[in-house]
Amino acid sequence: MIKVEKEIAGKKLTIESGQIARQSGGAVVVTYGETTLLACANCSKEPREGIDFLPMQVEYREKHYAGGKIPGGFFKREAKPTDNEVLISRLTDRPLRPLMPKNYRHELQIMLTTLSSDGVNNPDTIAAIGASAALLLSPVPFDGPVASVRVGFVDGKYVLNPTKEEMEISDLDLMVSGKKDKICMIEGGSNFVPEQVILDALDFAIAGINDIVDLQLEFEDQFDNSYEIDDSKILSDEIEKSLNDAYLSKIDKLFDISSKQERDDAYNEIEKEATEPYVEDEILYPEVKAFVKNMFKNAVRKTVLDKKVRIDGRGLDDVRQITIVPDILPRVHGSVLFTRGETQAIATTTLGTSRDQQIIDSMDSDYKKSFMLHYNFPPYCVGETGRIGFTSRREVGHGHLAERSLKPILPSEEEFPYTIRLVSEITESNGSSSMASVCGGSLALMCAGVPIKEHVAGIAMGLITENDKYAVLSDILGTEDFLGDMDFKVAGTKDGISAIQLDLKVPGLSMEILSDALKQANKGRLHILDEMNKALDSPSELSPYAPQIVSFSIDKEKIGGLIGPGGKNIKAIQEQTECVVNIDDDGVVSVSSSDKSKLDTAVTMIKAIVEDPKVGSVFDGKVTKILDFGAFVEFAPGREGLVHISELDWKRVNKVEDVVSVGDKVQVKLFEIDKQGRLNFSIKRLKEKPE
Asked: pLDDT digit string (tens) for 244-258?
């Protein structure tokens, strides 16, 4: 067994191999604190033919036994990947892809399994380290190692790999992946910190990344692992020259077409014509197709770098035209149609009660979410057909980013005790749809009457690099994302950043480029915020179709009385009023209903139970028992008082049954609380005394 270890941020990081999963192409066990993860990397012996992409699959899984738990649900076993597992799979995948050879076509699978969780150290950074170390031992030509760290910002100081407790008070949650002295990937959120705080955090992260990279290199040196990179050309120089001569000028004419759909159709015609002679050749066909695509890529990049002009005619820092239509849907609680260029989203807000919160059954603990953002990307939004089924990884990832962007502006649950669900339906897409979801989501919150103080806007930045030359692009198109070197998403208010995400197609970026990109993103974000404020600058009134919620606190000692034996009292209130009542352990009671009169009735009933009634108060009640001397009236579930026979009517009453019967609904007035605390009611005192 080979083992290396190093102290990182006050905790021991261990990488070992040779004891577990010995038949895997590359297998390592990584431990940080008492969180342990198994990483296995394997590739097919032969390349997959007929494709022009890297067939890599990264799968992260959590085992409940790792946290000493039995899974919830009927089957009591881990099922399909959770959103968190999908997100960590994506976080691990993204910094690895740019470090693979461009022509590598072997099936590559990286399996990551958390075996032990201490509930303190997050496994996401450990997963990235494990994947990198496993690849170093495998026969895969991996240009690593790569390492990941998390950076927090607590009390004005940066913290490397903060614990979960530290993260609860941190103004920053930034996961950074990189090679030696280079940033490869960024994912995180913050409490509206300025750009400089982000840049300083990245500088801080690099030191930790370098330490972990050095540890992996020390680990790799103990193994005799070698591989060969096949960089041979499949297309002859003659074929490449003929393709250039025939189609380069046609590709240049694509820049005269402003519409995405028309431009895509024109490009497809070029591609079809160029590949037609090779359709039957399983080897040459994908290579010719890739070569034509590369011709287009080079043309786009050259135009940007040399002429500072983009494919749609915009300047480098221009944002596409924005159109905003609030309240576009009549019955939903809040809605907006947000359009930026040829990217469009319908964002909707739905308000619910605490019973609508999402219950998360995680490896370490169970918890509830009162804010959810779901992102949908149907095939029609890009004019295509496609499979309709489970939520894709892209949809999970984009939804999470938009959710993280908007969460810091939400009011507290005490201020606004609603469960909030935002849905972004992408109806057109030509780049930056996740950031359109942020903008549309912020507007939809205001449309629904959620008391947010200001808007959050998002913008996606691109990059074209060539040797020492580079150009940063604002509000990128889908083509610029596909053919460029960077997809850098930044969301925030005028005061600072709430979420950030960086993906690269190059091995790493300098701090200079990142700084320029953040500055340019700030300019674009402020422009978008200005357009959003023109459309809607303050929250609307609460939708009449949304449930109404009243929250108040009661004495914790009164909770048992409110619930009643076996839940009798609370069930009665809910049945009689058709309201939803929730009682927290701290004594906070929330009552919700779409009918205000029923809501008021429920609140009155609850207060009648938990509050000491005052002499002179009037109650609606029901006769529950009749005795010779009077009738008992229940004025709240579990609480009753006596109407003495003399208090039934101003005239003499011989028998109680002559006036009331069991089950009768009556109105009573409390006129006395005797020394034993018994309540004495009157019916007659609500009537005028006859002369």
From this structure: 999 999 998 888 888
